[in-house]
Amino acid sequence: MIPFILNGLEVGAEESWTILEAARFYGLEIPTLCWNEGLTPYGGCRLCLVEIGNGPASKLVSSCTRKVEKGLVVRTDTRRVVEARRMMIELMLSTAPYSKKIQDLASKFGVTQQRFKPRNEECVYCGLCIRMCDEQMDARAIGFQNRGHKRKISTPFDIKSEECRLCGACMYICPACSLRCQGPNAETSVCNACLTMDPTCLDHYDELQCWMYDAGRCGTCVQEKK
What we know:
- By secondary structure, the protein is α+β, with helices and mostly antiparallel strands.
- It has seven helices and seven strands.
- Among the domains are: 1-77, Ubiquitin-like (UB roll); 128-177, Alpha-Beta Plaits (2-Layer Sandwich), CATH 3.30.70.
- Helices cover 26% and strands 12% of the residues.
- The longest helix is centred in the middle third of the chain and has 17 residues, at 79-95.
- Mean pLDDT is 87; it is low at 222-226.
């Protein structure tokens, strides 16, 4: 077992584990979008960011791709981490506002506004469909094309692929393909239909303090505030 520090506690992890796998083993919830247990890690959505190190030298890394190291100091819910996750959710909302999965993430993390102009591209470039087609369906019928604002997912040369079996696995795993509850004619870009109350830990300690429960569920800091 590799010893490291997770949210202030010394724990151990298997040598092959990523920070995400170790955190989930100890019951900590880290949000993900482009990660799937049956596919190789990608680290594209940046929702699984955690903070490693201490002081000015600390930095944000994707927990699904970073391996556990001996003596590594990991914090999963600092103010910096939570704010970064909220920003990524807001950016994804501008790209795919009709995705139920992204809308649910917005409600869970208290994203109540949309400061970026909606583009309605309906693709957040998480790469799940590409990895599903390649690694699970063994078809390799689709892939990324171009870079920057011209990036897209398509078949080679944008023509019908002979490798595609029309299995639908790419649509099954796509987070943008699950339509939000209000349907395609929603009046707002952020629904917040499932909005949960923000924990007050960040206001008091600069870091979520929960360990035995899901972050923000215990209500301890709310009681202390009273």
